[in-house]
Design a protein that fits this description.
This is DNA polymerase III subunit delta. One of its GO terms (cellular component) is DNA polymerase III complex. This protein is of the alpha/beta class and 318 residues long. Helix content is 52%, strand content 8%. Helix 12 packs antiparallel against helix 13.
């Protein structure tokens, strides 16, 4: 992901700081999820710790990555086998303290050590307070790279000690060719739906392609423009989502519904715009609740469909 469009300016800033000899000790890599920030952090860390004439191993001892641990022993086995695995919700204070213990020693192969925290958004409160101590008194040669999707969630005392690299989202014109290259088997409708839902994030767009959102997108547009007096389209929406969708598909559906409303608000007639804004606010609340509450898929589909219908103009007004 480090070669994705939109990384040119972050690389320019990073390499200018590296060449200046006055490298800041802590950096925030900020931007939407799916922009390749973690890949950038690892590549930047390798540039940081590299020493002229010293062979650099693939698994570098001077690059420490702090990320959520597997959720349990079964998930840990999946990780060790190279399979997808579920993680714990937060990065714990014990993990931060283990890293801090390592920072009391000298780097192994050179004079610098990189600590990548991915994502810093997931640090539990006590872990943030522990990290702050290291940022206030950084060990010599240590550079912290904090990957964050929501920098506003970080404490002001953390942000004030870091230099920020911002990663821009991509335009639909950039995402289109990228998806055509990386997901050539996807239908045009699926790619169009993925671009609409991704909000400029290539990683999110690829994830949405895997969910095959083209048919869902078409049904949502009909709900918004035609209404659904007899609940036929809402039934089609529920069937397309599936009887037992996983969490990723449910969240992708919610993101797509919000994107459909955002796309429509600028071109909608004046009387329809407040309806769209109100429906979008309700969908945003529903999206925030979805990771916590175990919604019945059928009821969730009806709720999404109902909100889209609420944003549609009555036929007589249309």
């Amino acid at each position: 992901m480090t070669g994705l469009i939109g990384h040119a300016e972050p690389w320019r800033e990073w390499r200018a700081a590296l060449a200046s000899g006055r490298m800041h000790h802590a950096w925030i890599l900020a931007g939407r999820q799916g922009l390749g920030k973690a890949g950038f952090a690892l590549a930047a860390a390798r540039e940081l710790v590299a020493e002229p004439g010293v062979p650099q191993p693939g698994l570098h001892p001077d690059i420490i990555v702090l990320e959520p641990l597997p959720a349990n022993e079964d998930e840990a086995r999946k990780r060790d086998e190279g399979k997808p695995y579920a993680t714990k919700r937060n990065i714990s204070v014990d993990q931060v303290r283990q890293i801090q213990h390592r920072l009391t020693t000298r780097p192994t192969l050179g004079t610098r050590r990189a600590i990548v925290i991915d994502p810093a958004d997931d640090l539990e409160k006590s872990a943030v307070n522990a990290l702050l101590k290291s940022l206030e008194e950084p060990p010599a040669g240590c550079v912290f790279l904090l990957v964050t999707h929501r920098p506003g969630r970080l404490l002001p005392t953390i942000r004030s000690r870091c230099r920020t690299l911002r990663f821009p989202t991509l335009t639909a014109a950039d995402l289109g060719p990228l998806l055509a290259r990386l997901a050539p088997r996807a239908t045009e409708a699926t790619r169009a739906a993925a671009i609409a839902a991704a909000d400029g994030s290539p990683g999110a767009a690829l994830g949405f392609v895997e969910q095959e959102l083209g048919a869902l997108h078409a049904i949502m547009l009909r709900l918004l423009h035609e209404g659904d007096e007899h609940f036929v389209l809402r039934g089609e929406l529920a069937a397309e989502i599936g009887a037992r969708p996983d969490r990723e598909r449910q969240l992708a559906t919610l993101d797509l519904a919000r994107a459909v409303l955002v796309e429509s608000v600028c071109t909608a007639p004046g009387p329809q715009q407040p309806r769209i804004i109100e429906a979008h606010a309700a969908l945003a609340t529903l999206t925030a609740q979805a990771p916590t509450y175990n919604y019945d898929p059928g009821l969730l589909a009806m709720e999404i469909g109902g909100l889209l219908v609420s944003a549609a103009l009555p036929r007589e007004a249309a």
